[in-house]
Design goal:
By secondary structure, the chain is α/β, with parallel strands linked by helices. It is built from seven helices and eleven strands. α1 packs parallel to α4 and α2 crosses α5.
Length: 286
């Protein structure tokens, strides 16, 4: 059975190997433009859509990302699974540069980012206590083990605003609070994917120790880029191996995340809002 898969490439990952029948797809959304034109192709019998998170030439800051347009575009194309790859800093010695952390929790430190499709006459409160799809998380972890890559099965991702890296005081505070890795993008993606009833996993690739590790060199852009490039090759291997195991079973909790979340009776939802959110709420309109 074919499954449409979305891949979000983070810093250092701007293309995917193994794609056939490649074509570019421009998607319009009521929330504006996605980060870039999506690249469509086939892998292992699946239709795959690849989107570089920061644009093909890395021109978009984390705070400038149009998360809603990105996730909406995938939903509009019929994507049911998103594999998100991102670069992160480590807050603990055990998470070493070039390790992979399959996070299962998030903590938000961003400043006013809009991370919901709802509003304008419709209210929904999704369950988000476990923000990562459990089935997809398990498949990715199995892929990492099969490829003999150093992968950690859990971790908490603190989502900072950026674009500057942490101060030493911030980094030490995050460590004292027990957080594991730090990044600038994944929380909003995860929330919106859950609202869109898309299975989502964060494949976090460690580039550095943030700035808390005084025995290590201060984080430099050159060192991060070197690790980014090596991480990107491992990410491509993980993606190809995981795609072999898809699709996710229909019993996954992500597929019905809105079933008990929409609070507003549909008869009170404005017609314009229903149309705008059509791809997301269509099965609840009747």
């Amino acid at each position: 059975m074919e499954s449409k898969i979305g891949i979000i490439g983070g810093s250092g990952l701007y293309n995917i190997d193994g794609l056939s029948k490649i074509k570019k797809v421009n998607v319009t959304t009521p929330f504006g433009k996605p980060s870039d034109t999506l690249v469509q192709g086939d892998i292992h019998g699946h239709t795959v859509y690849f989107l570089p998170r920061h644009g093909a030439n890395h021109t978009i800051l984390p705070s400038e990302l149009n998360f809603k347009a990105n996730i909406y575009a995938f939903k509009k194309l019929g994507v049911g699974t998103i594999l998100s790859v991102s670069a992160v800093g480590s807050l603990k010695k055990k998470y070493k540069p070039r390790d992979i952390v399959l996070v299962d929790q998030f903590y938000d430190r961003t400043d006013g980012r809009n991370s919901t499709f709802f509003g304008n006459g419709i209210v929904a409160h999704i369950s988000f206590s476990h923000p990562i799809c459990p089935q997809l998380h398990s498949l990715v972890y199995k892929s990492c083990k099969k490829l003999k890559l150093k992968a950690h099965k859990s971790g908490t991702y603190i989502n900072m605003e950026g674009p500057a890296f942490s101060t030493y005081a911030e980094s030490m505070t995050y460590r004292k609070l027990g957080f594991d890795i730090i990044g600038m993008t994944n929380l909003q993606e995860a929330k919106l994917a859950r609202e869109a009833e898309i299975c989502y996993v964060s494949i976090s690739m460690v580039t550095d120790y943030d700035c808390w590790h005084t025995e290590e060199e201060i984080v430099s852009v050159d060192a991060i880029i070197e690790n980014l490039n090596k991480n990107a090759e491992n990410a491509k291997r993980i993606l190809l191996e995981t795609i072999k195991s898809l699709p996710i079973k229909d019993t996954c909790v992500c597929k019905n995340a809105l079933q008990h979340a929409i609070m507003t009776p549909m008869k009170f939802v404005p017609a314009a809002t229903k149309k705008k959110l059509g791809p997301i709420i269509k099965k609840y309109l009747t």
